[in-house]
Amino acid sequence: MFITDAEEHRASLEAVLLRHASERVSLEIVENVASWAVANHVTVEGNPLASAIPARNGLSRSIVLQRKMDENDTAGILGRLDFGGHSRERSLLVNPKLFLRHTVLHELAHLENNWGQAYEDESDSWAFERLSAQWRG
Ligand SMILES: [Zn+2]
């Protein structure tokens, strides 16, 4: 799957955050997450497609998302879902909007639960519970 410009989905993603976050989270859509982290003096491991940034220096919590993603990028995230036992749910991520909603909810799971990087599967489960609640209405 290709994401040509995540900005096109900003309204949808912000609505998801408004609905599922306990307090304000700002959505930063950037060219490169690692470069954004350096410029904003926060620590991000490796060069992820998305990252959750806790509140800092009076700034609200943030979710940082890479603006464009190619087939390799999205395959990395989708592959993790298979590996973590979420292959059934993975098949529901059929378009960029659902893919990005899942990605943002996954990052929100880290923030809401104070879950570090060891909690990838838990964060995916948390995200899918909320995505499917949205499908039910
Ligand atoms: Zn994660």
Q: What's the gyration radius in Å?
A: 14 Å
Number of strands: 3
Helix amount, in percent?
40-55%
Q: How far apart are the first and last residues' alpha carbons, in Å?
A: 26 Å
Element-by-element helix/strand order: HEHEEHHHH
Low-confidence stretches: none
**Category from helices, strands and their pairing:** mainly alpha
Number of alpha- plus pi-helical segments: 6
Bound molecules: zinc ion
Provide the spatial order of strands within the biggest beta sheet. 1-3-2
- Residue fraction in strands: 5-15%
Offer a concise description of the structure.
Helices cover 50% and strands 12% of the residues. It contains 6 helices and 3 strands; from the N terminus they run αβαββαααα. The mean pLDDT is 93.
